[in-house]
Amino acid sequence: MSDEKAGKGAAASSQGAVAIVCGSGGFPTSVAAEATARGQSILLVGLKGIAGPEIEAFPHEWVHLGEMGGLFKLLETRNIKRIAFVGALKRPDLSDLRLDWGAVKRLPDIARAFKGGDDHILKGILRLFEAEGLEVVGVDALAPALLVDGGLLVGTAPDAQALGDIQFGFSVLTAMAPFDTGQAAVIANNRVIAIEAAEGTDAMLERVAALRASGRWKVKGRAGVLVKIPKKGQDLRVDLPAIGPTTLQGCVKAGLVGVGVAAGRVLVLDREQTLVFARQNNLFIQGIAQESSDS
Amino acid sequence: MSDEKAGKGAAASSQGAVAIVCGSGGFPTSVAAEATARGQSILLVGLKGIAGPEIEAFPHEWVHLGEMGGLFKLLETRNIKRIAFVGALKRPDLSDLRLDWGAVKRLPDIARAFKGGDDHILKGILRLFEAEGLEVVGVDALAPALLVDGGLLVGTAPDAQALGDIQFGFSVLTAMAPFDTGQAAVIANNRVIAIEAAEGTDAMLERVAALRASGRWKVKGRAGVLVKIPKKGQDLRVDLPAIGPTTLQGCVKAGLVGVGVAAGRVLVLDREQTLVFARQNNLFIQGIAQESSDS
User: Fold this and answer.
1) End-to-end alpha carbon distance in chain B
2) In angstroms, rounded to a whole number, what is the distance separating the alpha carbons of residues B206 and B202?
3) Between A115, A190, A197, which is nearest B193 by CB?
4) Residue contact A175–B178, C-beta within 8 A
5) ipTM for the complex shown
6) A191: closest CA among A215, A213, A219, A214?
7) B73 touches A at CB < 8 Å
8) Any chain B CB within 8 A of the CB of A219?
9) How far is the C-alpha of B189 from the C-alpha of B192, rounded, in Å?
10) What is the mean pLDDT of residues A39-55?
């Protein structure tokens, strides 16, 4: 079901331009560069105060978060039927929103989207765009080379203990899936060391480093893996789990041996930098097929 | 099944003395006082370097952690057939253990017990004592007044949102049960804010306070509940979840409205102090029947 959602079957360049709504971080321009290299026509739509100025290296427009009417008009004018959402967008403070009439008339739907977890919000927002007749496409369709594939991406292949810990982590995170919470956990020697909820992966890794330093987690030498997968039913078109240099720095501080992710469902941000850092610090990144239980 | 395990059916005073192996903290003497008040004959067995000197207010002996042979001989000499384990015992550093021959000959079983999570360790240790013909009894049998009963223990009754969040937390923790990890979570407005793993409840509450302070968890005023239940299959004779003044201080710093626990399965440490603090800070403590899925 996820594969269908992600629109992998769609040839990227045969259906006209894709508008890429850009959140913060360097990821929107990575996707833009990769999509352009694949011959995909794109228009970056930067969220003012959120996306960085580097998006202006590509065809672009700027809108305020909340200017929904303006955005829909822009896409109509340009005859753009497909849209992608890329980059970080923190749960917005309502006072930061600049609602235009296009947004205000959709307020009941927006309000409904804001009750519950992150996944719920994203799905609600997505439905708003689909209701306008737009097709929402994912990074896996626009720039598949940015995902972790199956197999060893970098480093020395994980040993049996690490592979077992990755599988254990997959089981833990799959059990958490119905509750729309964290996508990551740290497992070491068959034991759950940390589970992510609202704090995010980086803060979770800092906690693991602190547990080690305080002796609360007693272990000698490097041990344990970071495991990251999408949640069950998570819409990969708007919410791909990601790892990057910051993640790996956190893994090193936590004394982990590597990272195990669901193959084809997790992004690598700043790929070159990430791979170099992994090699320098002897960390592996392993993609493992995750049994889909979405259907 | 837990009720049977806990030996609630056994009259506390009709079967001779109970040896109470004492870990750290003030809890062993609370249990000793309550058991004594109920007419139960007891012998406190302090773990050297771990239990506090206040245990000497009761009939007592001292042993080193690891002096298993010595402990078994002591119980035999005194004709004590029942034993309880009370107080905190961190995952011991193997170099702190003083193994006697009674322990060394059981090393294969002890080593087996140490692979896996906390629950696994405790069960393994428990089996060692049962293999010696001892009956292991729980605090719920020795001092039931120290547990949170069903209903409102203190504070203003939780509203519908808080009750829903408690039930949601029960569901989250029940889903985590097979993985022998945390017993606690923080839920607010149908959203999982934090899940406990190796860091413990107090550290989890500090994290929630930090998430609020940093604006990563955006919420106005007091909201959210701490939920705490035993794990599925957790042996309440050796591992009762507990709350106390420190827990409530953490709840106040995290801006929560109260605490929901599994009725009859969670201890209150320093009860009077806990209740006073709860009243002063307008926190509720609510016991709610947890559906048992152990059998």
Assistant:
1) 6
2) 6
3) A197
4) yes
5) 0.72
6) A219
7) no
8) no
9) 9
10) 93
**B142 touches B84 (CB < 8 A):** yes
Task: Give the largest Cα separation in chain B, rounded.
Answer: 62
Q: Identify which of A64, A65, A56, A63 has the alpha carbon closest to the alpha carbon of residue A29.
A: A56
DSSP assignments along B169-238, one per residue: HHHHHHHHGGG---SEEEEETTEEEEE-STT-HHHHHHHHHHHHHTTSS---SS--EEEE-PPTT--TTT
Q: Which residue has the tokens 């793993």?
A: B197
State yes or no: pLDDT of A130 exceeds 50. Answer: yes
Closest by CA to B293, choosing from B170, B144, B153, B160, is B170
Residue identified by tokens 């059998």 is B295
Interface of A with B in 82-111 (CB under 8 A): 90-91, 93
- The whole-angstrom distance between A217's CA and the closest CA on chain B is 7
Domains and CATH numbers, chain B: 2-142 (3.40.50.20), 147-288 (3.40.140.80)
- Give CA separation, B103 vs B89, B98, B129, in Å: 18, 9, 11
Q: How far apart are CA B77 and CA B71, in angstroms?
A: 10
B112, B172, B179, B190: which to substitute to probe chain A, counting the most A Cβ within 10 Å? B179
First to last CA, chain A: 6
To the nearest whole Å, the CA of B118 is away from the closest chain A CA by 9
pLDDT of residue B78: 94
* Phi, psi of B194, deg, nearest 5: -155, 145
What six digits make up the tokens of A234?
């998570």
CB-CB: which of A172, A186, A197 is closest to B192? A197
Q: Do A176 and B178 touch (CB under 8 A)?
A: no
Distance from the Cα of A287 to chain B's closest Cα (Å) equals: 23
Each residue's pLDDT tens digit in chain B (295 positions)?
344 444 443 444 457 999 999 988 888 999 999 999 999 999 999 988 889 999 999 999 999 877 888 899 999 999 999 999 887 766 556 556 666 777 666 666 665 555 555 555 667 777 878 888 999 998 888 998 999 999 999 999 999 999 999 999 999 999 998 888 878 999 999 999 999 999 999 999 999 999 999 988 888 899 999 999 987 777 787 778 889 999 999 999 999 999 999 999 999 988 999 999 999 999 999 999 987 544 3
Nearest to B247 by CA among B268, B263, B230, B223: B268
Q: Which residues of B touch A193 (CB under 8 A)?
A: 197-198
Q: Which amino acid is present at B143? A: A
- Count CB atoms within 10 A of the CB of residue A48: 11
